[in-house]
Specification:
288 residues; two-stranded antiparallel sheet; 9 strands; 40% helix
């Protein structure tokens, strides 16, 4: 069964009465080069478990089943379950869970599904509208996974992989950098999908660090400060933090001056260490 052939895909979907949902951001891959490349990038083997999010009609799932020992796919749209039963009938190392990845207990899912695997990876073609929530859930939950390889909207991928202190950096870049080493693997054109979206995509890899590089006094406070610093990008970091965290400018000026940070710097110019220092100093000031 050739799941890259448009007519074959249309026939299967029609057979099961399936129609695309814009609300769920459904765009199915039809480029035969993309999914094998994504699967092979995992460097998986018979002892590797792969968690896939949003298998769609199973085109990536089939490639993951080829390279990994066990694949578990989480699909939100119950209408696709009968489609997947047909398209993936020959995959004997696959389990499909119907549910919302943002509501499931992923630690429990991994424990149940991959207890016999030496490593676990995540691979997905993520709908654009849930890219950041899914990635942040995977990172913040501190799941026992080695890496995340996902396809996302190009602009989102560039932001996710941006270096802290660079022009493209945002709050999500800070969060990703806190937990993982990131890289863009390759570009994917919009004509690789059915239906074709209005933007291009990229495949990115987030390699989860086993040893934490950073140690702020309070993680929650640090991430709150980071989000607030970037929440008003046209303003200086000092003004943005003051406006959104309710901290007086006088207090922030004292902290910035103490750390020798330019009062007029914008958030995207701050380094990770500077963001941590600002967060820590604000906490220390509050304690005194």
């Amino acid at each position: 069964m050739n799941l890259y052939d448009v007519e074959t895909v249309k026939r299967i979907l029609a057979k099961h009465g399936f129609t695309f949902s814009k609300a769920l951001g459904q765009n199915f891959l039809i480029n035969p080069d993309v999914c094998p490349k994504m699967a092979d990038s995992l460097l998986a083997n018979s002892e590797t478990g792969v968690l896939e999010i949003g298998p769609g009609i199973g085109v990536l799932t089939k490639e993951l089943s080829r390279v990994a020992g066990k694949v578990t796919a989480i699909e939100l749209d119950s209408r696709l379950l009968s489609v997947l039963d047909e398209t993936l009938s020959q995959c004997d190392n696959l389990n499909i869970i119907q549910g919302d990845v943002l509501k499931l207990d992923l630690k429990q899912v991994i424990e149940n599904e991959f207890s016999n695997c030496s490593s676990v990876k995540v691979c997905a073609n993520l709908p654009y509208y849930i890219t950041s929530p899914v990635i942040m859930t995977l990172l913040e939950s501190r799941l026992p996974i080695d890496e995340i390889v996902v396809m996302v909207q190009k602009e989102a991928g560039e932001r996710l992989c941006a270096e802290v202190g660079s022009r493209q950096c945002g709050a999500v870049s800070v969060a990703v950098n806190y937990y993982a080493d990131s890289e863009i693997l390759f570009n994917v054109g919009r004509d690789s999908f059915m239906p074709s979206p209005k933007v291009d995509s990229v495949v990115i890899r987030l390699k989860i660090r086993k040893n934490q590089l950073y140690s702020p006094l309070d993680e929650k406070h640090f991430f709150t400060l980071s989000k607030c610093a970037f929440s008003q990008r046209r303003k200086t970091a000092l003004n943005s933090i003051s406006n959104t965290m309710g901290i007086s400018k006088e207090k922030l000026i004292a902290v910035f001056d103490k750390l020798n940070i330019d009062r007029n710097v914008r958030a995207e110019k701050l380094t990770m260490q500077e963001l941590i220092q600002i967060s820590d100093n604000l906490l220390e000031t509050a304690v005194k």
